[in-house]
Design brief:
By secondary structure, this protein is an alpha+beta fold. The protein folds into 2 domains: about 1-40, no CATH class; about 45-100, no CATH class. Helices cover about 45% and strands about 25% of the residues. It is built from 2 helices and 4 strands; from the N terminus they run ββαββα. A hairpin with a 2-residue loop joins β3 and β4 (about 55-65). The longest helix has about 35 residues, at about 65-100. The chain starts with a strand and ends with a helix.
C-alpha cells in the first residue's frame, strides 16, 4: 500500500515507520484485504502488565497488546532454548544417549 514517507529509527524507536496522509489512513482502515500486513486496525486490545501506584493513584502503567504478548513469548522461548543448549547441550546429549542404550 502507498505511503507518504519512510521514517528511519530514531531515539527509543527501533523500527522503521511510515508517514501516512489522512486519506491513506482511511483507505487502510476500510481495506477489505484482511491478509495484508500493513492494514491498520481500528481497535487493538491492550492489557495492563505493570502498574506503578503512588498514594492510591496510577502513576505509570505498562500496557502491552495481545500481538506483542505473543511475540514476547515466542522470543523468550527461543532465547531460553538457545541459552539452555549453550549451557547444557553436551549434558542433554549424553543423557539422551544413555537413555537410548
Amino acid at each position: 500500500m502507498p505511503f507518504a514517507e519512510l521514517l528511519d529509527p530514531a531515539g527509543d524507536i527501533e523500527s522503521f515507520r511510515v508517514s501516512l496522509t489522512i486519506d491513506q489512513i482511511k483507505e487502510r482502515l476500510v481495506s477489505e484485504n484482511k491478509g495484508v500486513k500493513d492494514k491498520h486496525l481500528e481497535k487493538i486490545p491492550y492489557l495492563p502488565k505493570k502498574v506503578h501506584v503512588i498514594k492510591h493513584q496510577i502513576y505509570k502503567m505498562l500496557a502491552v497488546s495481545v500481538t506483542e504478548i505473543a511475540e514476547i513469548e515466542q522470543i523468550t522461548r527461543s532465547l531460553l532454548r538457545s541459552e539452555l543448549r549453550v549451557q547444557n547441550g553436551a549434558a542433554f546429549r549424553q543423557q539422551a544417549i544413555e537413555e537410548l542404550q
